[in-house]
Amino acid sequence: MKKSYVANLRYDLPSSIVVFLVAVPLCLGIALASGAPFFSGLIAGIVGGIVIGCFSNSQLSVSGPAAGLTAIVLASILQLGAFEVFLVAVVLAGALQLVLGFLKAGSIANYFPGSVIKGMLTAIGIIIILKQIPHAFGYDKNSEGDLSFFQIDGNNTFTTLLEPLSQIHLGVTVITAIALFILILWEKPFMKKFKLVPGALVAVIAAVLLNEIFKAAIPAMAVAADHLVQVPVADSFSDFLSFFILPDFSKILRADVIMVAITLAAVASIETLLCIEAVDKMDPQRRRTSQNLELKAQGIGNIVSGLLGGLPLTSVIVRSTANVNAGAKTKTSTIAHGFLILICAALIPVLLNKIPLGALAAILLVTGYKLAKVAIFKQMFQNGKYQWAPFMVTVIAIVFTDLLTGVGLGLVAAVIALLYGNLKNSYFFHKENHHQGEVIKIHLSEEVSFLNKASIKLTLDHLPENSTVIIDASKSQYIDFDVLELIKEFKEIKVNQKNITCYLIGFKEVYGIDNTHNVLSEAQTSYPNQILVSPKPAMVTS
Fold this sequence. Notes:
It contains 22 helices and 7 strands. It has 542 residues and is mainly alpha-helical. It has 2 domains: 390 residues, no CATH class; 99 residues, Transcription Regulator spoIIAA, CATH 3.30.750. The strands form 3 sheets. Strands 3-5-7 form a 3-stranded parallel sheet, sandwiched between helices. A two-stranded antiparallel ribbon has the order 1-2. Strands 4-6 form a two-stranded parallel ribbon. Helix 3 packs antiparallel against helix 12. The protein starts with a helix and ends in a 16-residue tail after the last helix.
């Protein structure tokens, strides 16, 4: 592993610069939107990169303050009355996550459908694009990192798009356009020899230089301070240390502190598991992250962040996607970006404060486009409606609500699609091929659960009169009791009502059903001109 980390430094170090550039304004914006001290967002970014990066076995995910926790953090700080008290809840939340990791609660991530995860990624891409368009034109009223549909300023994602039209800043627009041009140019094959220098870094440097030219030659186009990165500047080392706030542990036993901690632990854990699952799907090497180890790493990270005065942490999809797109190979990139935030915030904040937000908007616009390409919608549509429906529900729900609400609705849609798939019986689509007197074979699958009961019942109820049916359970390892009762009832009662001849084969003795052996060959001999037809609902295979 050590050799792998060293060998991949040429990929990971440039990637860490890209993630660093994206992370700084997001950390600051989330802190602002959360009603927390400005520097608390940077502390969370530093801890998320260095501490969680060291303990996690995810090679590509990046942790930091999360937009999904903004509303919870804002409400919790107001409820608890002081940021120092809120920090106690962050520490307790980390401890709870650590316990969840040891209890192996991370396995819940295995139940997230792929269609919902892809929908989440696509929705995040769309939101990034929509949220960055105002910043690209120099309208920065909404803070960076706010991904919810309804914003703190009373607007929503779409109404905010209209406001920049009357307030376009020419200098910011030009800088954004040039940064976009550089980023797109850097993706071209003929620029391969320059790939060791990240295109994002080149775009940011060009933006800073261009703004300095505007200041000197065309003041009207110069980008003002409210359109630049705004890192807190310390006058001395002791002043810098004052940015780190200690939690007030005298309030640790307060009931409201404990409830906030439980809420933070639950929401942060779910967001992390969702993000980890999504990042693993984006990993070109298809590496798998241990969900339980990730919960432990997140727990340690939140404990450290709370002790230092930082915001709560999760694995975050925007920075993780930027990391993947930048070509990172190992978690060296994540750890290095944390050190970059620490060094630059401590030593050169003035230099960081020269970066126009328009240049960073260009980076995020490219990131959003890669997440929400039209090709993704086409691919999901081709995968069939049982993938397409949950995917689209997730996309629309996240765009118009927030991440957790959208994913929750997507999971509901996936469950409904599953149930509908089990109810759906292709027998009805081919009803014209089922005539009286024909032989119909129902071949039960390996696992027949109670979810399949409705489909089997519909199939048996609609069998034609005077037909012959063969129910074959030879490949079934498990059949639910309710399904067995249904088949018994059909064999003993219903067949006489429609004069149906019913043969049962492959049922185990433990099921208490008598098998009629060798009926398949008998049926084929008796009905040589008939085709054995097998209805194919989800639990039935031919």
